[in-house]
Amino acid sequence: MHRQQSVRSSAARGADLSARRPRQASGWVLAAALGFGLLTLAVVLGFHPLARADAWVSAAAYRAAIDYPAWRTVMYAVTRTANASTLTPIVAAAALLLVWRGRWRQACFVVAAMAATTGVRLVILTGVDRPRPVDQLAPSAGWSFPSGHTTASASAALVAVLVCWQLLAPGRGRAVLAGLAGAWAVAVGVSRVALVVHWPSDVVGAWLLTVVVVPTVGVLLRAVLGPAEALPSVPVSGR
């Protein structure tokens, strides 16, 4: 009797956790959407404290890159890992591998999430038309907000975590995956500021945009393709 009660109690806790996860994930997405909206508004209106902070950080980054050539070399190497010529073949190979393994829904998610973040970013980029910093230390072109390299790397990292999360047992493997993917995405964002090709707020905007778009694509695909367990969902705990 006691054992049966324990089993029922554990099942109830599990069900409660499963019910809370979508609400918690939705909270993060809504918070990111609000933050991105406010940041975009500040950029469009030329909010002076933001512009001053961007200029101060960019000036410090320029001095550091000039004073320490090795640092500049490392940052240039990091930023190249998020070039379209680097990421596109990797994303395509990952999608094809998933299809080959019979995980076509996850493959659709990979392609749709990467395409959606790129498309949404381009629309915002054109609408905001924010100039880049002047003292650029790496090749760059086009408008500045939000950062393309940062959006691409953050999206690829988040997609990788969401897809692989289900394939790994709870524990160290998931922690290592999330840590490495997150560290790479952050490093790429830092490199864009360090090379003075983007303002710091461009990078923050790209991170927020990714947190909004990628999970939203997952939700939409689960609604269209289903069932829910066949597509990645946002992990909100270590379990």
Number of strands: 0
How helical, in percent, are the residues?
A: over 70%
Query: How would you state the average pLDDT, rounded?
Result: 87
Please tell me how large the radius of gyration is.
20 Å
- The figure for the number of domains is 1
Order of helices and strands: HHHHHHHH
> SS-based structural class?
mainly alpha
Indicate the low-confidence ranges by residue numbers: 1-20
Strand content: under 5%
Inertia-based shape: globular
Main sheet makeup: none
- Helix count equals 8
Give a description of the structure.
There is one protein chain. This protein has 239 residues and is an all-alpha fold. It has one domain (11-230). The chain has 8 helices and no strands. The protein has helices at residues 2-45, 48-67, 69-80, 84-100, 104-128, 148-165, 172-194, 200-224. The protein is globular.
